[in-house]
Amino acid sequence: MTSASKIRVGVVGYGNMGHYLTKAIEDNDNLELAFVWNRSTEALEGNVKSDCILKDLNDFAIFSPDLIVEVAHPCITREYGAKFLQYADYMIGSPTALADKDLEVTLRKAARVHGLYVPSGAFWGGEDIKKMADRGTLQALKVTISKHPYSFKLEGDLKEKNSRVTGDTAVELYSGPVRELCPLAPNNVNTMAVAALAAHNLGFDGVQCRLVSDPKLTDWHIVEVETWGPGDISKDKAFHCHTVRRNPAQIGNVTGSATYVSFLSSMVRAHGKGPGVHLC
C-alpha cells in the first residue's frame, strides 16, 4: 500500500458493530472495504457487495487487506490472530482474549512485521495510563463497570448471580483481578482488558476490577477508572485520578451508543505505527 492508496479493511463479524463499521468504511474516502466475514453468510447477502463477502475465513489473504478488524468473539483471535498478523495489521475488538497468557505472548511475537491494535473503546485516559506504565510510575489501577442486569452476557456463576438481581438494589457480581473475570464476561469487560494492556506494568493480574449489576441503570453504562501514581498510597499521599464515564445505552444493549463512534475513530487510527502492540 502506498501513502496515496486507500486502506483496505476487512471486517470480521457482522453484528451491530460490524454493520456500523462496514457502512462507515464505505462512506470514508480514505478507506476501502476488502471483505466482510460473518458466521452466518445470510446476514451479509443483500447488505454487503457480493465481491466483498468472505465465506471461508481461512481465505482472508486472497482479499489483500491492509487492516483486519475483529468485532465478533474472542475465539476469532485465538484461532486466527497470529495468522492475520502475518498478512496485515490487526485490530482486536474483543481484547478479553488476551487474558490468556499464552495467547498474549503468541500475538506479541507475531506482531513483528504488522501491528496489533487495541481500541480504547470506553476506556477513558488510556494513553496517559500507558505513559505512566512506561515510566514505571503507575502503582495501581481499578476499573468498575456498572450496567443494567439485562445488558450483561455472562458465563458460569456470574450468570446465575446476575439472574437473581431484582428490585432496585445494585449487586456486586465480581471484585478482583481482570484476568479471572474475562472468561466469565467476554462480551462485557473489553474495557477492563484494554486497561490491563495499557497498564502493562500491572497487567491482567495486577489491574483490579468490579462488575456491578444495577437495575436502576435503564439509560446508561457507567465506567469508573481510578488511577494511582507517584507517592505514598498507604498514607493517601499518592497521585490519584478518578474518572466517571456515563455512556448512553438502552436496556439489553451490550455496547453503549458512544462506543460505536469511539471504535470507528480507533479503526481510522489503526495504521502506520509499525510492528508491536498499540493503543488506538
UniProtKB/TrEMBL annotation:
GO terms for biological process: NAD+ biosynthetic process. The lineage of its organism: Eukaryota, Metazoa, Spiralia, Lophotrochozoa, Mollusca. One of its GO terms (molecular function) is aspartate dehydrogenase [NAD(P)+] activity. Transmembrane segments: none annotated. This is Aspartate dehydrogenase domain-containing protein. Belongs to the L-aspartate dehydrogenase family. Residues 170-259 form the Aspartate dehydrogenase domain. PANTHER family: ASPARTATE DEHYDROGENASE DOMAIN-CONTAINING PROTEIN, L-ASPARTATE DEHYDROGENASE-RELATED. InterPro entries: Asp/hSer_DH_NAD-bd (IPR005106), Asp_DH (IPR002811), NAD(P)-bd_dom_sf (IPR036291). Residues 13-116 form the Aspartate/homoserine dehydrogenase NAD-binding domain.
